[in-house]
User: Fold these one by one.
Assistant:
Number 1:
Amino acid sequence: MSASDLRAATAVARIAQGETSIYRADLPDAWSFRTPSGGVLMTTALRAMTAELDDPAFHLVSATTTFVRSMPSGPQRIEVVTLRRGNAACQLRARAQVEGDELGLEVAATFARFREGPDAHGREMPEVPPPEACEDASPRGRYLGRTLPFFDNVELRLAIGAPTWRDDWEAGEARTAYWYRYLVPQEQGGELDPLALPPIIDTMPSSLTRRLGPKHARFFAPSLDLTVHFLDPSRGGWLLVDVTCPRARGGYASAHADVWDQEGHLLAFATQTMMLRKRRRLG
């Protein structure tokens, strides 16, 4: 089976324009875990917001998604409202749902025009082996004997953590880092499409799995929210997603992710709240 192109899978078409504009998307099952990845759903909504703004002078700088309920693959209706359109910044809101169903998610995003100001870095990329020196972590056939469609579209290499698809590992720090590479490149005009970042960011539960150890009951962790700050541009290729889980308590967990490229650029950082549920066997 060939890999799915994220850009094509999350394409949107405007069907009505006004104070509230309406967009349609048709997300294939190729980007699902149990249901479509929350990060991919976020990317789809952001594509509609970018189309509504329709001004390349404004760059996406931050977005917060609230996941109200899971959404199946297939046709989606996305409503977009412009909250503010200024000279320096624009803010929009999108609400997505399956046609005729209840609200699935809501996204609030800020787009900004670059301006004069300080250029400073406050964080260094962790020292990790390059992707070619890291163990293949693509989980094909490793998740209860079944491949999750999402992972047919990316290549993974383990940079920090443990090979949790095996039994011969020990609990450790609540941190994992994986190199990701899209099998269908997501570059445009010589730069990585920033909307390719939410799908690989929305993979944070592995950090908690590392902390709990191989004997802990497996779980799945649907997202309640996901906030991404988009920072530097990149030429793409391999991307390092470095995740920590500061706390899990009362059936919920919070995690943080930094995304780096191989040249040491911090492309994004993100935070997420997850609901922890017992994992039922797929079959």
Number 2:
Amino acid sequence: MMTDDMELVREYVQHQSEGAFATLVSRHINLVYSVALRQLRDPHLAEEVTQAAFIILARKAESLRPQTILAAWLCRTAQYAAADALNIQSRRLRREQEMHMESMENQLEPESVPWSDVAPILDAAMAQLGEKDHSAIVLRYFEGQDLKQVGAALGVSENAAKTRVSRATEKLRQFFHRRGITMSSVALAEVVSAHSVQSAPLGMAASVSSTAFHGTAASPVTLSILKTTLKIMAWTKLKTAVVVAVVIAGAVTATVSVRRAKAPEPSSPFTFAGYAAPEDAWNSMAWAVSVGKLDKVKASCTPAQYERLMKKMAGKSPAEISEELIHHATTMVGFQVTQKEVISDDEVRLLLLVPPSPDHPKVGHDLQVMQKVGGQWKYAGKWGVDIK
């Protein structure tokens, strides 16, 4: 059978014999189809794979060696083709599921969200974006430019600009969603486009221009802001996203703190992440501190650490403790875990990058201890600090 198969192959190659190829197909089609069907369990898809296998034979026939066992070669080819078909099918199903979930989310999301909900944290959200995403949002929604203009400014095509704007808008939407503000990307784009740029007071442009251009005396407040901003701009060369985020998000958190007396559920620059991993536990602790909930803080700490905290807060009222926790959280915004040192199965030390803040104006590192208690990771306190 082997010689007969390869003779038919040679006849097909040398004379483009349709009859020789048809004989090969007829002889081996059941084998190829069966291999495909076993893997796919889908008759229609198995037919597609069978077709693909014989197309490959037609294209590769000339390169087959005389010693080739064609049945085995076709079997292997069918296995490869079926595996690829499974991957294609899996990707298609995954895309369909993602599209379905996105459709369901968009249906559940409100068509519009009040600007008053978006405005307090819009700039914190913008600070999380990379430079190109940030520029795309500013040009498209703040400046009101069309996609062709955005593309020209970014040095890309109109289609590329559309993709960039879409992805950046989705990142913003996810930022708001993590903070309890749920809306579609379309709704977010509409509210930002409509409200992000407000008219400055009449005559302000002339005053600002004159002061900046002629160097006339600025107010003490302006000079103070100027000095701090220049420092921030210098720091941004080291860690742009972290520095900008901590300054803006810190201001946002302070704004939220003012509203806490009125709002039963304060917003937070952090997200509760559970206690399954040390990094998650640290984030959950930061979230608990940022919302000023002592019971949540207790749940995120080891008993020893919570006892130390209570001794530190001795003599203060619950309201004072909550206020102090919330203030402390503003110094934690922008912390990034850069290294994890495993001490044992139940203890890990996290090295965190510490960006500048009003309480800690220099960049450095914190070493925080996380311990496992009852199968969950908890915050056990600070091991050391290196602020430079």
Number 3:
Amino acid sequence: MKKTTALVLLMASSLTVLAGAVIAPALPGLRQSFSTVGNVDLLSRMVITVPALGVILGAPLIGRLIDRQGRRRALVGGLLVYGVGGCSGLWFGSLPLILLGRLVLGVGVAAVMTASTALIADMTSGESRSHWLGMQAAFIGGGGLAFLTVGGWLADISWRWPFAVYAVSFLLVPLTLMAVKPDSGHGIGPRQLGILPRRAWLIYLAAFLSMVIFFLGPVQLPFLMDQNLEASPRSIGLALGMMNVAISCGSLTFSRLQRRLGSRRLLMFTFLMMSPGLALIGWLPALAGAMGGIMLFGLAVGWLMPNLNLMTSNLVTEAQRGTALGNLNTGLFMGQFASPILIVPMLRAGLSLNQVFLWGAAFSCLVALSAFLICGRGSHPMCPAPPSEANHQKT
């Protein structure tokens, strides 16, 4: 894969973290601005997660379209839709309209994430694929640091200004047209696509559960810091940015760790490592304790995304890859969308945000234990097998 092509694809991938995280520092201000709206606590949190609904609805169809019509076309179209939907929060004057714009943003995210990952997988194989998928996750984490920091600064001015950051996607359109060669898809019909392996559905389940746990960070952490530490939007943005630094650090070590442990063991280890990070955030009220938990939590998440993408890409043929990755993104974003919906009843029942993070730590341990019991020895028929390069891959 050429360096210029790789750079453009990595930059496009980094936009996916903006779907929710860049708005996180503005959530307290947005909630205050719409304080008279019914269910504002839930709706303000859903500003982050409604793009997930757009991905849930769009990713399966977009994945199949990518397999039949081509990756680059979907990537360019996704960048345009992403920019329009993301920037809509600058001028929409009601919370329902803002949520509608976020839904359109999610459709763009589905196209950008699926197409960019499929292109990286198509152009690489073996250790090279593991390396570049790790680099993709590192760019997502690095983009999170830069954009979250900017989002925190802009949120100090107004809760609306972080929405302007989404315009960066328009700049990537001409770069994509220049750096990525056009492709015509595989020219296959639905019947020729074939059935995805059963093992793929276990990967999708792991993706769903991982995002339910992960989105405790960008969704609930701003409110925890605002209530317990009286943190400013800039401080919240910096804290979430540091989480993305940790994600990048974990992603940069992914390829080496995956070679030593294998994808299955690394997946179990990831859930196990997320637990103490969440426990530290919920248990220690001081900023230093929360930052320690954030860094540990982010490190584990840095292994998660490239591992799920690698397992999915290696499990299917190139002709099925767009469909399989689209389904994976559906599982990921179903978890993101479900996370605040599952948490709000806990808050209404009287649990504090600190207790919610402690329950998240316990749930992460439970998922790790379940994965070990099912896949610890690789004997379960639904357990993802070790990566195989038997598919027809490009080198």
